[in-house]
Amino acid sequence: MLAVDGINPNDQQETFAAGMEYILLGRYSLRAGYSDLNDKGFSAGGGLLIGQPGALGFRIDYGFEGHQYLGEIHRFGFNFVF
Hints:
The protein has about 80 residues and is mostly beta strands. It has strands spanning about 1-5, 15-25, 30-35, 40-50, 55-65, 70-80. It has a domain at about 25-80.
């Protein structure tokens, strides 16, 4: 999947973002993106589905984002899938 976003608000500067996600075997996902909103820059991550695709399971996700003011940001997600 590929996504591109451009925002032109009345009270702030224009921003641009793009990202992509690749899902392998319905179980593994790799993600990457770029955003100039709040000077974030590059981001990347991945995920793993534990269980059968399309059935009850558990998903673990990780994301990394470089931020000008906050430094390196690491995000973790734990989700039930049904």
